[in-house]
Amino acid sequence: MCFIGCIGVLMDSTGLEDILGATFNGISNMLNGKAWPKVTGGFRMVVIALLQPFVVSGKTSVDTIQEQLDNAKKSRTGRLWVDCLIIPVMILHLYIRAVREGDWLLHLYALKRMQPYFFNAGHWNCARYTAWHLHDMTTSLPEDMWAAFLRGKHVCHHHSWVWNSVFLDQFGEQTYIRYGKSKDGLVGKTVF
User: Fold this and answer.
1) In the chain, fewer beta carbons within 10 Å around the N or the C end?
2) What is the DSSP string of 132-153?
């Protein structure tokens, strides 16, 4: 949520609100990170639309797309949209993939890539605690814990399927909400 809020801060008054407003309601909640599933889909749609000329041309190798993005960065507007929307949305999707697959190294890499955006958007607490988390997890984690994290033991699964990992705090919250609701609404505290 905080990283999506960074994208919202960096893309403020650029026309992104108008683009997303044509499809979605509640743009202010989307751009401050509150409606993160909806904004993730919205950002993905905008980035796909921006990258469509590269994909349609058939030149889809990473080097070709990187070259095209470097060409787009030659103008100020192009640099803004590439650096503050396209690349952060790719980082956001890397992070979601890391969580859903339980990939610890990808998780750390995505957080490292997010850190400059926290600083640039003025999200000082996220920047500070992300830096502390990265340092702590890469330097002072015991070897047996590091090995467990590499095996995906830092996430939980509701089912044994693929692509359904969630972090422990979210797992507890999702479980509690699922058991606390019924067809007619909330039924009370039924788990604890």
Assistant:
1) C
2) HHHHHHHHSS-HHHHHHHHTTT
Residue 149 covered by a domain: no
Look at residue 9 and tell me if it is in a domain: yes
Could you state, in chain order, the average pLDDT of each consecutive group of 10 residues for the chain (192 residues)? Answer: 86 83 71 75 86 74 82 89 92 90 91 94 92 92 90 76 66 60 59 50
Please tell me whether residues 112 and 174 are part of one structural domain. no
Angle between helices 104-121 and 143-150 (to 10 degrees): 90
Q: Is residue 43 part of a domain?
A: yes
Quote the CA–CA distance of 163 and 174 in Å, as a whole number: 16
Query: Burial code of 78-99, b = ≥16 C-beta within 10 A, e = fewer?
Result: beebbbbbbbbbebbebbeebb
Residue 16 and residue 186: Cα distance in Å, rounded?
Answer: 36
The total number of structural domains in the chain stands at: 2
Identify the helix (H) or strand (E) that includes residue 120.
helix 104-121
> What value, to the nearest 5°, has the Cα angle with vertex 176 and ends 39 and 168?
70
Tokens read off for 38: 């909806």
